[in-house]
Amino acid sequence: MAQAVGEALVNEEHLVVQAGTGTGKSLGYLVPSLLHDDRVVVATATLALQHQLVERDLPRLVEAVKDVPGLDTSYAVLKGRSNYACLHRVREGVPDDQGALVQLPEGSMGAKILELRGWAEKQAEEGGTGEKDAAPRHTDREWRQISVNHRDCLGATRCPFGQECFAEVAKEKAQKSHLIVTNHSLLAIDAIEGVPMIPEYDAVVIDEAHELVARVTQAATDELTAPEVDRAAKRAQRYVEGDQADDLADAGDALRDAIAAAPTGRFEALPEQMADALQLVRDAARACVSAFPKEQNSDGGDGDPGRQQAKGGVQEVFATAERMAAGSDADVLWLTDGGDRGPQRLCVAPLQVWGQMRDKLLTEKTVVFTSATLMLGGDFSSVATSVGLKPSERVEVGSGGHDVPDHVLPWRGLDVGSPFDYGQQGILYVARHLPQPGRDGLGKAQLDEIVELIDAADGRALGLFSSRRAAETAAEEVRKRLPHLTTLAQGDAQLPELSAQFVADPHTVLFGTLSLWQGLDVPGDTCQLVLIDRIPFPRPDDPLMSARQKAADNAGGNGFMQVAATHAALLMAQGAGRLIRTTSDKGVVAVLDPRLATARYGSFLKASLPPMWTTTDGGIVRQALKRLSAAVSS
Predict the structure, then answer these.
(1) Gyration radius (Cα) of the chain, Å
(2) In this structure, what is the dihedral angle of CA atoms 618, 619, 621, 624, given to the nearest 10 degrees?
(3) CB 371 within 8 A of CB 207
């Protein structure tokens, strides 16, 4: 892998590398990245991997090569601005709905804000990073009281604390570093949206590349609510002398009425009332932005932080309403049902991101994509297409350089395998005898199967479910029928706490949904059974997935296979990957959905999973689990 990455960087050709758990893939790209003449950016999807790179892998690597003359081993971490404490907000206060700076919120949150402010000041004194992850325990709402996003930031030259700013210090360090570690979202904003966030670089390594499309889509998704329009109008009223802020508030009321009258879900075409309301908001916000006074300080910037932030809020409302009102075929627009997240939200997201990635990232930079799961259905085509690489442009690894036209982007695919012997270490059990999953959740047959498998394993089980309701139903049944085991369900506590409990006691069962499918690493005897309740196809009413599936059908493709089956294959590969984490791990992945064995698409899904020994015989599997449990207990 290291050789292939080095050649890709030198030859300026894209590379897609599948490197299984345990291969040491981070060193496989860090070594050639450090040896490369120009700056390389490493982008990850999760904070856990970012921490691993910066706190473990890079320090060890730098120590190992410290005697190599002339090698630049400098590196830095760069995150979005809202991940750093803002000293202006810490010292001057937070704008309320009218834009006035408030020192402390009322109630119990005030004490936590004081604690976070004290921490931020200490970080500033001691030269700390001021990063969110290093802060005392807090909620997102509490963190927002001491941080800003890029819109609310005054800018280093206009902020009285610009010289000390944690985000600016991180940016300066990155500017001097050979290697920059960042995240997918920041990369997307920099490369695809064209907002300069990262110092100039030559190449990028994208780890956890199976997550990239989702993260890029997320970064390009905008939301609009009626309270957000109200808040922007109220803040503007302090600075706008005419009626423009009042007109914006009236437009917000029109939007509220349109949202109340509209059905939730995706809009194939905008309802007339919604289209009119969005145009009203767009036009009123544009007029309101123009009405802000043009007062400036000596360097040409706005001297009043409150006014700048109020104007920024209106500008954001304008940009989002304009995008939504445009009704572009390149976007998908839908209305959420609100629920726990507060008011109903209008959301707009790109129908696809491969075009932008191809035009704005792949044509400009050399890109290495890597992950443990990039081959779906046995090849790279699905993932390569989703990120903007064409299967027809693939060239063989080791086939030498190529003279190609400018519009062609040659790429190579490499599977470096795995150190694990999946055929000996793991069993894939497909419960073919069970009824097909229905809409009513888990039935008696599925619950009986779950209980029998967990009983045979004597705990040591991770249950991956397609819904929170299914996970809770299964947890309740196991607690009732196997009371001697400890049964935990996602939501009982924070995920790190649940993971720690799961590792500490082998006679424990942990049930959960999506974050467990991908984010849990529990090597050893803790986990010898991974249960998957059903093939994780996207919900039929998922607005973005259903739009993408329909677009693929309309283009003459197979939308189900290109979108739904690919989505399911990726999640199943990630879920099954929770089982074998070291060369000594053994166990069973049990899929309780018979379609994996009976449906035509089942072979595509199975080809995406680790090559474990496969059976549909539950008796064999329960005996295997009992033997494993007995071996550990003895």
Answers:
(1) 26
(2) 170
(3) yes
Spatial contact of 628 and 586, defined as CB atoms under 8 Å apart: yes
Contact assessment for residue 285 and residue 314, using Cβ atoms and an 8 Å cutoff: yes
What tokens were used for 163? 């010289």
Read off φ and ψ for residue 478, nearest 5 degrees.
-70, -40
Which tokens go with 79?
A: 């995150």
For the residues 517-541, what does the mean pLDDT come to? 87
Structure-block tokens of residue 244: 């423009």
Comparison of pLDDT for 162 and 549, the residue scoring more? 549
Say what angle helices 226-237 and 272-291 make with each other, to 10 degrees: 20
Other beta carbons within 10 angstroms of residue 116's beta carbon come to 22
pTM beyond 0.85: the answer is: yes
pLDDT tens digits for range 384-421: 999 999 999 998 765 555 566 667 899 999 999 999 99
- Residue 428's H or E segment, with its range, is strand 426-430
Rounded CA-CA distance 577/373 in Å is: 9
C-alpha to C-alpha distance for 388 and 192, rounded to whole angstroms:
12
User: Roughly what angle, to the nearest 10 degrees, separates helices 226-237 and 244-261?
Assistant: 170
- For 190-203, what is each residue's pLDDT tens digit? 888 888 889 999 99
Angle at 206 between CA 524 and CA 494, to 5 degrees: 45
Per-residue b or e along 501-516, where b marks 16 or more CB atoms closer than 10 Å to that residue's CB: ebbeebebbbbbbbeb
| Six-digit token string for 17 | 């590398």
Nearest-angstrom CA–CA distance, 613 and 616:
11
Of 560, 555, 516, 515, which is closest to residue 537 (Cα–Cα)?
A: 560
Residue 298 above 50 pLDDT?
A: no
Q: Within 13 A of 30's CA, how many CA atoms are on the CB side?
A: 23
Residue with tokens 């166990």: 587
User: Residue 52 in contact with residue 198, Cβ under 8 Å?
Assistant: no
Give the mean pLDDT of the chain. Answer: 90
Output the CA angle 184-140-143, nearest 5 degrees. Answer: 100
Spell out the domains of the chain, with CATH numbers in brackets.
2-74+177-216+353-415 (3.40.50.300), 81-161 (no CATH), 222-348 (1.20.1270), 422-633 (3.40.50.300)
Residue 20 has pLDDT above 80, yes or no: yes
**Dist CA 377 CA 566 (whole Å):** 8
C-alpha 593/C-alpha 485 separation (Å) is: 25
pLDDT confidence bin for 27, thresholds 50/70/90:
very high
User: Residue 390 and residue 376: Cα distance in Å, rounded?
Assistant: 15
CA distance 99 to 310: 7
Q: CA 374 to CA 371: how far, in whole Å?
A: 6
CA-based max dimension of the chain: 81
CB distance 486 to 500 below 8 Å: no
Q: Are 566 and 376 in contact (CB under 8 A)?
A: yes
Strand order in the sheet with 461-464: 486-489, 508-512, 461-464, 529-532, 587-591, 426-430, 613-615
How far apart are the C-alpha atoms of 235 and 265, rounded to whole Å? 31
Contact 262, 337 (CB under 8 A): no
What's the one-letter identity of residue 20?
G
